[in-house]
């Protein structure tokens, strides 16, 4: 395998961009139900970064339904023909119908 491809010329977690990213990473409870979808081939929001965030939020008591999607990247995850489109519509209908949100958190 070759080197991993990236759009960044330097580690984005450092400097001014890193500071802004930290400011925009939710680290407090979010009251509405959360559905987090992740393309397993996403090279913009990296799957391991997202999974660690979900793990931290779950450990803090935030109920989250986390759904990874194989072979989907950042844009193909939300393409009209993507499985997530139907999943999101169903998930949203369930919330409006008053059905409780599931959680994939183990705590």
What's the arrangement of secondary structure elements?
Layout: H1 15-23, E1 34-39, H2 47-59, E2 64-69, H3 83-96
Parallel strand pairs: 1-2
Summarize, please.
This protein is of the alpha+beta class and 107 residues long. Helices cover 34% and strands 11% of the residues.
Any overview of this molecule?
The chain is of the alpha+beta class and 107 residues long. The protein has one domain. It contains 3 helices and 2 strands; from the N terminus they run αβαβα. The protein has helices at 15-23, 47-59, 83-96, and strands spanning 34-39, 64-69. A two-stranded parallel sheet has the order 1-2. It is globular, with a radius of gyration of 16 Å. It starts with 14 loop residues before the first helix and ends in an 11-residue tail after the last helix. The mean pLDDT is 89.
Which key features would you list for this structure?
single chain, 107 residues, alpha+beta, 2 strands
Order of helices and strands: HEHEH
Strand count, sense and barrel status of the largest sheet are: 2 strands, parallel
Radius of gyration based on Cα positions:
16 Å
In terms of per-residue confidence, which ranges show pLDDT below 50 for 5 or more consecutive residues? none
Give the helix tally.
Answer: 3
Distance between the termini: 37 Å
Percentage beta strand:
5-15%
Mean model confidence by pLDDT: 89
User: Structural class from helices and strands?
Assistant: alpha+beta
Q: Tally of extended strands?
A: 2
How many domains, in number, for the residues?
Answer: 1
Strand order of the largest sheet: 1-2
General shape: globular
* Helix share bin: 25-40%
């Amino acid at each position: 395998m070759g080197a991993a491809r990236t759009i960044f010329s330097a580690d984005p977690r450092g400097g001014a961009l890193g500071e802004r990213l930290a400011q925009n990473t939710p680290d407090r409870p979010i009251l509405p139900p959360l559905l987090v979808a992740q393309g397993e081939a996403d090279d913009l929001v990296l799957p391991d970064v997202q999974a660690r965030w979900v793990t931290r939020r779950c450990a803090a008591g935030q109920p989250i339904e986390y759904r990874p999607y194989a072979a989907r990247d950042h844009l193909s995850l939300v393409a009209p023909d993507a499985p997530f489109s139907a999943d999101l519509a169903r998930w949203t209908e369930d919330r409006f119908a008053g059905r409780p949100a599931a959680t994939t958190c183990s705590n």
